[in-house]
Amino acid sequence: MKRDDALWKGLIEDLSDDFLKFFFSNAEEIFDFNRKISFLDKELEQIFPNNPDEFSPKYVDKLIKVYRKSGKDEWVLVHIEVQGSTDKAFEKRMFQYYYRILDKYDRDVTSLAILTDKNKSFHPKMYKKEFIGSSVDFKFNVYKVLDADEKELEKNDNPFASVILVVLTALKKGKISEKSLFDLKMQLLRKLYAKNFSRERITALLRFLKLYVRFESKELISKFDIELDKITNRPNTMGLKEFVLDRERRMARKEGREEGREEGMSIKEKEDKNNFTINLLTQTDFSDEKIALLVGVNIEFVKEIRASLL
After folding, report:
1. C-alpha angle 47/52/58, rounded to 5°?
2. N or C end of the chain, less CB within 10 A?
3. Does an H or E element contain 139, and which?
4. pLDDT tens per residue across span 99-145
5. From which domain of life does this come (predicted)?
6. 31 and 69 Cβ atoms separated by less than 8 Å
7. Nearest C-alpha neighbor of 197 from the set 246, 240, 248
């Protein structure tokens, strides 16, 4: 799984209530947020054949099971796709997801496409098909990040408005200097704390901001981390940095377990090497070559874990 994919999937799960309330204006009237929200990702994978050229997810797909607020024990499904590139077959694919989900569960389904690409002219919203008197006219919900109003987002107290601001900042990469990108990232960081979100929300947003908006310059990466230290060590956010680091460690361990099975290495051995590598990366300034030698792994192993912590 690509890093951005994992970030989106994790964020949607961490902020599921906020996510639904942000993208569906009448969410509080429809959904019962007092009941558990479930994610049917494994079930979603089973619906589609494992064929990267046909129906399998091209970017990020989530299937949310949420209960209605009608008082009845009735749940519905929300299919989400985060699309980061243009795709001529996108509308057709959204329809294929819809009818396969409907066929499997026979429940009310709504579909949402979040477009994070840089193409201003890419605006899929409907799939139409007609032949000899038979027709399909499928419409789905669409949110184009490039079309978002930054001023309105800044006024919005929903944490997911901050997520969209992060994505807008990332889309500016390559169009502005890295120094300007750094300044924008720092502005976002300060605004996040000014919102007075809960610790859990701040943690999820901080991780997304840190990893989604990336620099090529090692100097700027280090500078951002220093500024991050100053903020996360303030009394009102004490322990936040440690909490974020713990999540990064768990993600690296999970990736290590999957790789370990493929390579025939025992899970315990892989976790030990992961932990040792993470400690050296976070507590020393050793080169990747030196860490690889100390841990007893190849340099690619170290580089992959370093990338997951950036």
Report:
1. 80
2. N
3. strand 134-139
4. 999 999 999 999 999 999 989 999 999 999 999 999 999 999 999 99
5. Bacteria
6. yes
7. 240
Cβ within 8 Å of residue 205, ≥6 positions away: 159, 162, 163, 166, 192, 197
Q: Classify burial at 283, counting beta carbons within 10 Å of its beta carbon; exposed 0-12, middle 13-18, buried 19 or more.
A: exposed
For residues 48 and 291, what is the distance between their CA atoms, to the nearest angstrom?
41
Tokens of 252: 């690296």
Contact 14, 200 (CB under 8 A): yes
* Burial environment of residue 173 by CB neighbours within 10 A (0 to 12, 13 to 18, 19 or more): middle
How much is the average pLDDT of 242-253?
55
> What's the rounded Cα separation, in Å, for the pair 203 and 153?
19
Element (H, E) at 109: strand 109-115
Beta bridge partners of 38: 65
C-beta separation of 62 from 41 below 8 A:
yes
**Residue pair 273/295 in contact by the 8 Å Cβ criterion:** yes
Residue 145 has what DSSP assignment? Answer: G
CB 213 within 8 A of CB 173: yes
SS3 124: coil
Task: Find the DSSP H helices in the chain.
Answer: 3-14, 16-23, 27-30, 41-47, 90-105, 150-155, 159-171, 178-194, 199-212, 218-232, 240-263, 267-283, 288-295, 299-309
| 149-196 pLDDT per residue, tens | 999 998 898 999 999 998 998 888 878 888 898 898 898 888 887 777
Question: How is residue 297 annotated by DSSP?
Answer: S
| 176 three-class SS | strand
Q: Say what the pTM is.
A: 0.72
Burial category of 93 from C-beta neighbours within 10 Å (exposed 0-12, middle 13-18, buried 19 and up): buried
Distance CA(147)–CA(130), nearest Å, equals 31
Q: For tokens 């499904």, what's the residue? A: 77
